Amino acid sequence: MAREGVANAVEVSGSAGSHAAQIVHAARESFVAGWQHAMWAGAAVMAVLSFSVALRGRKNRSRPAADVDTAAASRAGSAL
């Protein structure tokens, strides 16, 4: 039951006698280790996504001159 979470480990430690502190310490250490791995994985995913967006954003940053002229002409036509 103690393997399912820190709260369960604390509850089980009440009846563990002299091993109570070891159970709580192990549960806390495993939680922090898992949390650290999840944060590093999230940081890696965000870095890859940021790099991907930066590359794609630069490619589509400016519109070709033909598109600019078409947009200007349509605005001028609607103003008349």
Report a brief summary of the structure:
With 80 residues, the chain is an all-alpha fold.
Q: What this model shows, in words?
A:
With 80 residues, the chain is mainly α. It is 79% helix and 0% strand. The protein contains three helices and no strands.
The whole-angstrom Rg is: 29 Å
Average pLDDT, rounded to a whole number, is: 77
Derived from helix and strand composition plus strand pairing, the structural class reads mainly alpha
Strand content: under 5%
How widely separated are the two ends?
Answer: 77 Å
Kindly state the percentage of residues in helix.
Answer: over 70%
Number of helices: 3
Shape type: rod-shaped
Order of helices and strands: HHH
Number of strands: 0
Profile the largest sheet.
none
The low-confidence parts are none
